[in-house]
Amino acid sequence: xxxxxxxxxxxxxxxxxxAHGLSTxxxxxCRAQDIFGHTSVEELARLANDNGRNNDQxxxxxxxxxxxxxxxxxxxxxxxxxxIWNWEDATRFWNLHTNPERQAWQxxxxxxxxxxxxxxxxEIDRDAAKNLLRASEKKASDLIDAxxxxxxxACTAExxxxxxxxxxxxxxxAEA
Length: 176
Fold this sequence. Notes:
Elements: H1 10-20, H2 26-37, H3 41-49, E1 53-54, E2 66-67, H4 74-84, H5 87-97, H6 100-175
Antiparallel strand pairs: 1-2
């Protein structure tokens, strides 16, 4: 029989441990494990992050700057967690849900992801611009070739017109 048998939630267990300390009796440790095991991760994270501070709207917030007047649960929660869980599991929970450096890391990771996406879009735009440049260069080359050919034909036609004018003049002056 455990002294924690009447406790149903992790919040009640934390309050009990804050008031009377954590029992190290095997059946009490097993009951504490059972209570934590049947509590949602969200509720455990709430208890793990309650440091007694509120944000400017009066809501519990680990980064809040206002004292709430309530007793924080964070220290007691982790005291229990490291007593009833394997240290790796308790440390993993800390890193996933409480570690203040994780938020900065997640923001950095999100920023890196956004920058990688922007780089990918820029590379696609660059490749499209290169393809457009190649097509424009080919079109310009084709137009230069067409212009050169047109100029050559114009010179040839002008020479023929001049020769025909000369022959016409010769015909006109020969009959007179």
